[in-house]
């Protein structure tokens, strides 16, 4: 199978400036910080692929290698079959990179002038550039402020301009590094809908979405990789990852008119983790249950309740949150 992006045992070490003592005692010894170690991932065309991890995990380093901005120390990386160390120019024609780094803009130019400047750098014809810029400014809510100097923009407005710049070239592959930071809820929602429905849905673009916002990842991403200390700890669909780290299943059962004697018996059952008694205004009692992944476990539990005279009104499974899985992975090493 051919992947639009593939890395094989990709590693990156950054040199550390040595002090005088190290220089004198160990003049030839290298001192390095490991940013990535043996990263192997595959991304299919049209995927919205999420890169998740704490600060310093290696997400931005991985993106910069794939964007040909940083050379790897070891291993291989390919974008549309092109090698990142040999085919830089060809790769750059295929990609867009959304980064909110303010120093990459010209502070005394207006928002529109900044976009025009970057359009010229990308050899976009003037008329086409003008049309693209106006569409992007309108979509991102910057049309009324496009004539203001960048230095007068708020944090949210600067992030919107970075997104517009990344979309200028109509890239086949779009890298987005924390793109919703600083955006108000409406603009963040519009951006996510653009990514999901237009870029990935209609135009079949591939989007690599690095984020700390786990809700964004759950809403958008078809597959994710969680990176910790420069290593990919887990990769796959959300469903696969949740099931992998969910050794037991949790349920909520609602009992109607549960007698006190029944609840006392239920308390002693091994699967029961919590009982939320009915209030004076409710005829129901909720029981939180934790059972094995074998579906027969919950069936036996329900049968025991019914045999004891319980009236089961409803039963539903509690799906594990990505936040729980993420916390477990990050804390485990």
Quickly list its features:
globular, alpha/beta, 14 strands, Rossmann fold, 4-stranded antiparallel beta sheet, single chain
CATH fold descriptor of the largest domain: Rossmann fold
Ends: how far apart?
A: 33 Å
Total domain modules: 2
Percent of residues in beta strands: 25-35%
Low-confidence stretches: none
Oligomer: single chain
Average of pLDDT: 84
**CATH architectural name of the largest domain:** 3-Layer(aba) Sandwich
- Secondary-structure-derived class: alpha/beta
Task: Describe the global form.
Answer: globular
What's the order of the H and E elements?
EHEEHEEHEHHHEHEHEEHEHEEHEH
Number of extended strands? 14
Task: Look at the structure and name the CATH superfamily of the largest domain.
Answer: P-loop containing nucleotide triphosphate hydrolases
- Placed side by side, the strands forming the largest sheet appear as 6-7-8-3-9-10
Q: What's the Cα radius of gyration?
A: 26 Å
Describe this structure in words.
By secondary structure, the protein is of the alpha/beta class. The protein has helices at 20-25, 59-66, 88-92, 111-121, 126-139, 155-167, 185-202, 214-220, 238-244, 260-267, 295-307, 322-331, and strands spanning 5-15, 32-43, 48-52, 74-79, 82-83, 95-98, 173-177, 206-210, 223-228, 231-236, 248-256, 272-276, 284-292, 312-318. The strands form 3 sheets. The protein has a 6-stranded mixed β-sheet, with helices on both faces. A 4-stranded antiparallel β-sheet has the order 2-1-4-5. Strand 12 and strand 13 form a beta hairpin. The longest helix has 18 residues, at 185-202. The model has no long low-confidence stretch (mean pLDDT 84).
């Amino acid at each position: 199978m051919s992947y639009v992006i593939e890395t094989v045992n990709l590693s990156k070490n950054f040199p550390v400036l040595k002090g005088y003592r190290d220089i004198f005692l160990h003049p030839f010894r290298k001192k390095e910080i490991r940013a990535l170690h043996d990263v192997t991932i595959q991304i299919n065309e049209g995927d919205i692929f999420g890169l998740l991890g704490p600060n310093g995990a290696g997400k931005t380093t991985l993106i910069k290698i794939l964007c040909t901005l940083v050379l790897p120390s070891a291993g291989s990386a390919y974008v549309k079959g092109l090698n990142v160390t040999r085919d830089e120019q060809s790769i750059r024609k295929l990609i867009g990179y959304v980064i909110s780094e303010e120093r990459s803009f010209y502070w005394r130019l207006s928002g529109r002038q900044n976009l025009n400047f970057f359009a010229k750098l990308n050899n976009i014809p003037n008329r086409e550039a003008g049309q693209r810029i106006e569409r992007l400014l309108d979509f991102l809510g910057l049309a009324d402020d496009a004539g203001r100097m960048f230095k007068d923009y708020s944090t949210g407005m600067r992030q919107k301009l970075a997104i517009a710049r990344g979309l200028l070239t109509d890239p086949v592959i779009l890298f987005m590094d924390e793109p919703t930071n600083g955006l108000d809820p409406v603009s963040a929602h519009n951006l996510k809908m653009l990514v999901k429905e237009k870029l990935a849905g209609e135009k079949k673009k591939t989007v690599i979405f690095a984020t700390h916002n786990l809700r964004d990842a759950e809403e958008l991403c078809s597959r994710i990789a969680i990176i910790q200390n420069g290593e990919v700890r887990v990769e796959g669909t959300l469903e696969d990852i949740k099931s992998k780290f969910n050794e037991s299943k949790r349920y909520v059962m609602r009992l109607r008119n549960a007698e006190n004697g029944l609840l006392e018996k239920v308390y002693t059952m091994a699967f029961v983790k919590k009982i939320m008694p009915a209030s004076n205004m409710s005829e129901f009692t909720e029981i939180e249950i934790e059972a094995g992944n074998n579906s027969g476990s919950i069936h036996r539990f329900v049968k025991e309740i019914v045999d004891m005279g319980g009236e089961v009104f409803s039963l539903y499974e509690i799906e594990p949150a990505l936040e729980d899985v993420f916390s477990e992975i990050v804390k485990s090493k």
